[in-house]
Write a structure and sequence with these properties.
Radius of gyration: 21 Å
Helix content: 25-40%
Mean pLDDT: 92
Largest sheet: 7 strands, mixed
Number of helices: 13
Distance between the termini: 67 Å
Strand content: 15-25%
């Protein structure tokens, strides 16, 4: 029996985003020791983002990794994604319909993250970022933390997002590219007036000099009430349904707060349909923000060791194909399955990680390519 068989496998995850937490949930179910280190001071210390569309890969990954009771809760607090996306002009005159989607479910990123944190307890440590690592002679990895501490494990998974410190050390030549232009992310409480703007899967508004992408987040059940019934140990916030919108424009709008940025945007909507203008005017100042679009250029396989990458830490992509979060979740489920097999067999950790990396790089950068190909659909025409 090897030393690892005697002590069991230990996985260290850098980053408590949805990809890293999905992996952690799956590893806990498999009986694998996992520890997650997150740079943010608390789960609710910052705005978590907007509605995401979960496709078959994202939903399948969550079904595989979450305990059944938490997956049932997730189903209860997602929203429907139905109907063809449509393209309209600034007066809301329909121009065309886009290809139908495969369906799926709309999920609020904060609610999803809270569900993914449920039951992990002290396996997740906030305020302790992974800052670097060193490979040990016995094949394990020692991980350095921002508070001066350290820990060791059999595998370090960099799931620490676009600015990944793990990627910077593992792949110092990997290139992260900023996409020109400026995007603003807005969130407005859902009313009957605003719901009519998105009768189907989504609505793309093409106006002079800017575009606006609209998506509805309509909870099937109020999150707090659903949690109280289906998983009482989980506390979800009181969150009302909303409409998520993204404006893309060539120039940079800057300000000290969202109210300032919003007031700079409103004059650019002169002559637009009153419902679209009011949508921006009524936006939530806490849950709206500028949005920087980036992507990573493809990298060759780096040679497997006790460190690997997941999600935006390796294949950052713009949201134009709706695949960023879904690909991160797909990574998590695939790596979990590979590690679970290695844990069950007691051998083959290196081979498991290598198989994951080759498969992940293939579909991950294919998703980046597709996202870039679709980006012109959302780019304003001059």
């Amino acid at each position: 029996m090897t030393e690892r068989e005697e002590r069991g496998m230990k996985v260290i995850v850098a980053g408590a985003g949805i990809g890293g937490l999905c992996l952690a949930q799956g590893l806990v179910r498999a009986g694998i020791d996992v520890r997650v280190y997150e740079r943010e001071p608390a789960a609710d210390s910052r705005y978590q983002g907007f509605r995401i569309a979960l496709n078959e890969h994202g939903l399948g990954a969550l079904r595989d990794c979450l305990p059944p009771r938490l997956y049932r809760l997730l189903e209860a607090v997602t929203g429907p994604l139905v109907g063809q996306p449509r393209v309209v002009d600034r007066h809301l005159t329909e121009l065309r319909r886009l290809d139908p989607t495969d369906g799926g479910a709309a999920a609020d990123r904060r609610i999803l993250r809270e569900i993914l944190l449920a039951g992990l307890g002290d396996r997740v440590e906030f305020g302790r970022a992974v800052t670097g690592y060193a490979e040990l002679p016995d094949g394990r990895v020692e991980v350095r933390l921002s508070d001066g501490g350290s820990t060791a494990g059999d595998l370090l998974v960099g799931a620490d997002g676009v600015g990944s410190s793990v990627r910077r050390q593992l792949l110092p030549d990997a290139r992260l590219v900023d996409i020109p232009g400026n995007s603003l992310l807005g969130r407005t409480p859902l009313t009957g007036r605003f719901a009519a703007l998105v009768p189907g899967f989504g609505t793309l508004v093409q106006g002079p000099g800017l575009t606006m992408l609209l998506g509805r987040m309509e909870f099937r059940r109020p999150p707090r009430l659903a949690a109280a019934e289906l998983a009482p140990e989980v506390e979800l916030p009181d969150t009302d349904s909303y409409l998520r919108w993204v404006v893309t424009l060539p120039e940079q709008l800057t300000g000290d707060d969202w109210a300032t940025v919003r007031d700079l945007l409103l004059p650019l909507l002169d002559g637009w349909h009153p419902d679209l203008v009011e949508l921006v005017r009524a936006s939530d100042v806490v849950n709206s923000s500028p949005l920087t679009l980036r992507y990573t250029e493809p990298v060759p396989h780096w040679g497997t060791g006790p460190v690997t990458l997941l999600g935006d830490a390796i294949h950052t992509m713009p949201p134009s194909a709706g695949k960023g979060a879904n690909t991160a979740l797909r990574d998590a489920a695939l790596l979990c399955r590979m590690l679970t097999d290695a844990h069950r067999d007691g051998t083959g950790l290196h081979e498991a990680v290598e198989s994951y990396e080759h498969e992940m790089l293939a579909y991950g950068f294919a998703a980046v390519t597709e996202s870039l190909e679709r980006l012109p659909n959302f780019t304003p025409k001059r």
